[in-house]
Design brief:
With 531 residues, the chain is mostly helical. It contains 22 helices and 2 strands.
Length: 531
């Protein structure tokens, strides 16, 4: 060995499946330790009948105990089958793979999307991903595989497409162009917490409307700059695997014959796209008609037992919200079939099924990742560690005696930190609302503005925590399109990719909120940051 030459050990990369399994072991062991130390917390919830605060004690559950082991064994199948990303991903892939098999996605991408400048397409992807949170987490299951495919077809790195879609959904979660599922999840707790100070407080459904519209545009613009200027150069181009040379039988085709084939192909594509457009419009019309109440055969997708239209549309038992991924899949199936039949790209049902099923060849590892990840998330939730940490952070805020901008920023950071272990807007706001809302009102800040802090804090760290269930789809698709199987996308590597996005978007959130508060712009119709 030459003088000065250093011995370099080959780096070893754990597969995400292995890492999630290690996280399970760590969670089980840490739960036993913390349980023996009697780790617990008390948080206050509002009684829905008396509107008074009631203390709730929560302690760490030992997963190495008899009941803990019994839970892990008896609930393994339930944890897997009830894991949201599993069903959503498979349902969306059925529609996407059929649309791909018929050639619809390729024809549409090359004819229309390829002409769009890269920066514009990036903005469109991020903006659509951001506003997709109007309907919970559907953006992950639909946009990640779809955008990866579109980028691949158009010769751009699909890894970049996966990152773009994931960042758009995660770091813009809770903002949109209209009120949606987030209002349903937050507004009741906001109102009850506000009534602790003023029992005449009214929180309207549109109380955050102006802010979320502006935020969705601002975050999309900033996100586009981050992707194009920082992340894209690091990702680089997608280098396809070199295929082994094969011996083929060549035949001479005249130039005229080749041109004639191309003309016929273009005609078939145009006819296919035209027919798919007609079918798509019809399908969308039927969907929209199903969302209109009190018309003949309408309202099929609404929960008519609810009193308000927003709850009918986005409530806990909403048929529209629960079935949205399936509706999108139906859209792709119908438009794909219309294209395939008109363009003659599919011969018969057997040809279609054979082509479509090939799209599922690479998701075997995804199913295993989802199984292991579902166990980890279920076990962590069972331990109550995330809930206890969230309760501690809420209590910390209560004892800090802050006001004004300091109160806003610290509340935002604490909510963001709690999201690393305890995801879900409704879960955290149940604990934070009785603390944050009264503190804000006592500091002359409106409860509606406190709700915005919840939105921002929840979205800031969504994309950097393995506890987020839908991050499994992101990590899985990175590895599906990864050409270097010796160097898989581990959890650390996957989250490092989005770290620049997280840092800059977090600063953007803080500046946007502080600027809005200082200027005093309305956050909704007749609703302002201050009382």
């Amino acid at each position: 060995m030459k003088e000065g030459q250093k011995l370099r050990l080959k780096k070893f990369y754990f597969h995400p499946i292995t890492i999630y399994f290690m996280l399970i072991i760590f969670t089980v062991l840490i739960s036993a330790l913390l349980s023996s130390l009697e780790m617990q917390a008390t948080y206050r919830v509002i009684n829905t009948k008396t509107y008074e605060l009631e203390p709730t004690l929560v302690a760490v559950e030992n997963m190495l105990s008899f009941d803990g082991i019994k839970f892990m064994i008896s609930n393994a199948a339930k944890n897997f089958l009830s894991f949201g990303p599993l069903g959503s991903l498979i349902i969306s892939l059925i529609g996407i793979t059929i649309a791909e098999a018929t050639g619809l996605i390729e024809a549409f991408s090359k004819r229309y999307l390829k002409k769009i400048p890269k920066q514009t397409l990036t903005f469109i992807v991020i903006f659509v991903a951001t506003v997709s949170s109007l309907i919970n987490d559907v953006g992950y299951a639909i946009l990640i595989p779809l955008v990866a495919l579109i980028y691949f077809i158009n010769g751009r790195n699909p890894i970049l497409g996966i990152i773009t879609a994931f960042c758009g959904v995660s770091f813009g979660y809770g903002v949109s162009l209209f009120v949606g599922s987030t209002e349903v999840a937050l507004i009741n707790n906001t109102k009850m917490a506000a009534m602790l100070i003023d029992d005449t407080t009214h929180i309207s459904l549109t109380s955050n409307l102006f802010f979320i519209i502006v935020a969705s545009v601002v975050l999309s613009i900033v996100g586009t700059i981050i992707i194009e200027k920082i992340i894209s150069p690091k990702i680089g181009k997608y280098k396809k695997e070199e295929e082994f040379a094969t011996t083929e039988q060549y035949r001479v085709i005249s130039l005229q014959e080749e041109e004639q084939k191309q003309i016929e192909q273009v005609k078939r594509e145009k006819k296919g796209l035209r027919n798919s457009l007609i079918v798509g419009i019809i399908v969308i019309f039927i969907f929209i008609y199903s969302l209109i109440p009190n018309l003949p055969w309408s309202g099929m997708l609404l929960d008519m037992e609810e009193n308000t239209y927003l709850n009918q549309l986005f409530g806990e038992n909403s048929y529209f919200q629960d079935g949205f991924t399936y509706l999108v899949s139906i859209f792709f199936i119908m438009t794909g079939l219309a294209y395939g039949i008109a363009s003659k790209s599919i011969k018969n049902d057997k040809d279609l099924i054979e082509k479509a099923t090939s799209g599922f060849e690479n998701i075997g590892s995804t199913i295993i990742i989802i199984f292991i990840a579902s166990q980890f998330i279920a076990i962590l939730k069972r331990t109550n560690i995330g809930m206890i940490v969230t309760s501690w952070l809420a209590d910390l805020l209560n004892y800090m005696n802050l006001s004004g901008i300091a109160l806003i920023v610290v509340s935002l950071i604490l909510i963001a930190l709690s999201n690393l272990l305890y995801t879900g807007s409704a879960n955290k706001w149940l604990i934070f609302a009785p603390v944050v809302v009264p503190l804000f009102m006592q500091s002359n800040i409106s409860p509606q503005f406190a709700q915005i802090i919840m939105r921002a804090g929840d979205s800031m760290t969504n994309g950097i925590t393995p506890v987020l269930a839908s991050s499994v789809i992101y990590i899985s698709y990175l590895n599906i399109y990864n050409l270097n199987k010796e160097k898989p996308y581990t959890l650390r590597r996957a989250f490092n990719l989005v770290m620049p996005y997280f840092l800059i978007i977090s600063i953007t959130w803080i500046l946007l909120i502080i600027g809005w508060y200082i200027i005093g712009l309305p956050i909704g119709p007749k609703v302002f940051p201050t009382l």
